[in-house]
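Why predict the complex rather than its parts? Because the way molecules touch one another can change local conformation, and only a joint prediction can capture that. The input here totals 1150 residues.
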Amino acid sequence: MTAISPSADKKAAVAKFAKDLEIEGRSLWADARDRFFRNRAAVISLIILAFIGILVVVGPWLSPHEFDAIDWGYMAAPPETEMSHWFGTDSLGRDLFVRTLMGGRISFMVGILGALTAVVIGTLYGATAGYAGGRVDSAMMRVLEILQSFPFMFLVILLMTMFGRSIYLIFLCIGGVSWLDMARIVRGQTISLKGREFIEAARVCGTKPSAIIVRHIVPNVLGIVVVYASLLVPSMILFESFLSFLGLGVQEPMTSWGALVNEGAQSMEVATWQLAFPVFFLVVTLFCFNYVGDGLRDALDPKDR
Amino acid sequence: MKKLFVGLALATAVSALLPVQAAQVPAGVTLAKEQVFHRGIGSEPASIDPQKVEGSPGGFIVKDLFEGLVSQDADGNTIPGIAKSWNVSDDGKVYTFHLRKSSWSNGDPLTAHDFVYAFQRAVDPVTASKYAWFMQIPGIVNADAVIDGEMPPSTLGVKATDDYTFQVTLENPVPYFPKLLAHYTTFPTPKKVVEKYGDDWTRPDNIVSNGAYKLSGWVVNEKLTAKRNPFYWNNDKTVVEEVNYLPIPSATSELNRYKAGELDMTATIPLDHFKKLQKEIPKEVTITPLISTYYYSFNTKKKPFDDVRVRKALSYAINRDAITKYITGQGQKPAYSFTPSSINGFVKPDLAWEKMSQKEREKEAAKLLKQVGYSKSNPLKVELLYNTSESHKKVAIAISQMWKQALGVEVTLRNEEWKTFLDTRREGNFDVTRAGWTGDYNEASTMLSLWTSESSLNDAKWTNKEYDKLLETASSTIDEGKRGLIYEKAEQIFSSEMPAAPIYQYVTSRLVKPYVGGYPMNNPEDNVYSRDIYIIKH
Amino acid sequence: MLKFIIKRLAVAVPTLLVLITISFFLMQAAPGSPFTGERNLPPEILKNIEAKYNLDKPVWQQYFLYLGNLAKGDLGPSFKYRDYTVNDLLEQSFPVSLKIGAIAFIFTVIIGVSIGTIAALKQNTILDYIIMALAMTGVVLPSFVIAPLLVMIFSITLQWLPAGGWNEGTWEYLILPVTAMAIMYMASIARIQRSSMIEVLNSNYIRTARAKGLPWRTIILRHSLRPSLLPVVSYLGPAFVGIITGSVVVETVFGLPGIGQHFVNGALNRDYSLVLGLTIIIGSLTILFTAIVDILYAVIDPKIRYQ
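Output of the joint prediction:
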């Protein structure tokens, strides 16, 4: 089963950066940004990602075909230009170019919304625990520990088989299980922020704790959260493809890269193009996300290089 | 298809003159030295206990390990099994079976008492058999009450008049009763062994069976192995020494293993590969008709599907030829009647809409829908429910496109995983739903009784008194020809009311290596007995 | 130290209980029953079947019955495979997954750590780039693409190895599934190992060691390898559990009789007892391994203990 969290080294880098950030202040961000843009692989990856992103959004309009229309005369046809089936068609005669790009929309969406879900839950949970401190904190951390040793993948499979497979449930599920590390990082950050003057001031003014968390703490941990979220995206996309393999992905006629790749893998000896195009997009995207992630890590933790 | 109709309408005993099925190796064929047969069975069997098994994977195995009163030949005709002959009383209610002298795989004699035990066991609430209803179909005396727990199993209308005579009493005359006995629920079970080992009696170390094979190994989700049973009454005619059953749920994986030479016969062929395989290895692709219909049910209790015009319009607009040609493409036949033509003794009804061209049908459909008040500006909205599977998905997508193009109907697809789907369908939470039905025995009532008012399978919730009455009459009509006419009338009513749109008749398609001899190309119940198979030298 | 271990394990029991409870009620709430099929069963037959499996009792009573049996080590009968109890099924399938998983795990760690270390030592050379690009491919290629590819190449085209099956775990049946399973985790471990090794090599004490003129081999084997393994160790817990449970894909493609297939089929068939049994096994494993890794970490790095 695919692990849906970034690898340990990236997590460590983010946490460490958060610590340094606290000591040295704002200029670290600027340094990190400079370092990131000096990393050629990361920058190229970012450009490719942007290109794929745009293609996925506008691409479907370039083709004369609908993503769910059947071309009866062109069932499982190889790529050709005459009928504008640039990537060929699937076994039902639907245009693969359009479907690949539509699938890309879903995959990107699952990745991004899944990460967002994780971020929202993780940030609020971590900030609350960190800010409350004391018993509440240790109780919340215990809960986190318990959750951490849960076989979540299995719960996700259970949920997906039993309660239908709406796309919302997918990213809720994926996001819902990957916020744990996020919560830890945010908690650490919050604890150090808590002692700062502006928080003290807010408290003295009688601001409610919930307001302090939302207005003062969350905006201050946001940077680190965004970086971490970017690392979550590729693992989410990969996990969605795993769900698709189990037949628990998005609803037809919608599709995702995972679903397309899985269909392609079933017929790779008969219709190579049905596997090749979606796999190419999936792999390139994940490659790029990973290089960007590596770039971010290196930028945040310069000692490595 | 129509051949002699064994045991039916014959009040006299049918003697053992009938051919007995066994591997018939043609002259001139050299057999392979190693007679081992590897067959794919799709998925792990739910059980191999004759009274507990359900589904075809377990069915394949149980039919090799056990043998009932009757069996089937390669064309699906009923032939004598353990019963060498049988006769019916004049009122058609009491069947007497004369058993041959045979024994269990441990050498114990097999007697009529074993059948009494098995029949009682099937209806006993303690067994909790899912196929207990199989004893209710012919209406064996007291079957209902025993299942309900009102009477003890010993009151079931079966008895052993002596060690080798078995008698069954029915509530009403059911002329096709012997046909039902090729079904595994009626196979004998060894009482002593079952009582000694409880649920564990089917393990390789404990099992005792009476068929051509005896289980020798079982690894769940990998394979079951069976070896020739030397005590089988017709053992001399068995050729294959060892059978391996491989449960491989993924059709693509199964194909790979077939190509790698690990399987001699698959359970299915993946859709995407079919055309290519037919081109490359046409001799290995086998297609057999099956008593099974693929159809879409309409929710007749829900507006606007309570209107027969809407149902007809949707049914007419389905281009069945396109579906069988482009989507399924494995020799499935377009279906216009609910009963498949391959069924024994069924006369194909003369349906008016079947004769129209697709263009005419679509025109008629548009007209009907217009009458109801739907148009492009006020489109009919339909939610189409189907259970998750590659092929159902394809059919659903194609049909929704056809409805959209021909009638401007707006279709939403809803796929649910099997168990959820069944719940939804039963509760009637659908507009149109995919369904399929495979007959339990080779007679038209196995299909048509589905649409009677009290049938628990009638998910369309369609009721028609005339239809109900026709089927009731049919069930006690002994003459086969007359019965056929009644079924034809029932099909006409079905077509004029269209509670469901038949789409195609299923086929069994599988790959069989050229060196596998004796494969039954025409058994519409997909009964492939390993005892009929022989491996040719290759 | 002992206190830490006890504390760590004390959490395990309530965790497991929570897990069982959640899974139990989740399955109760799920639509569909283990006994629905294409043919709707007549109510009296359904009643008989439900009585046999205690499903006619109130839910809370079923729950405590289950817990009571569980305490005795009895996981109940399988709802789908009527000739087996869940204990039987697990006894048969768990060793299979364990065997493949353990072999894959050992390979993963040995090869992953080695190539990660090599890449670190040859940092920014062609070799490094090749290893890392391959590792990245391993990370991003879904295993349901890798596995059938392996079958196509080695079983169908070359006919060197069987395309599937278990055959009591003889070696030729193990190679492809183990490879498919190991590739992904191997790649992750190589990447982690590479970056932590680079970090260690840049640290002051290694520089000192080098300055003192110690031979490279000694520096790497004695001084660098152990500290560089820390991040890898923290990854091992999830990786091991992932490999064992993650057999879902590989077991499906290769038709292996392990727990992965049971889980997916069990969920689809609504085989409540089987799925619960598996959840308990996998849950315990996850908890055990997280605990072991924590303890291992505490042994290697004493700072953890005092947090």
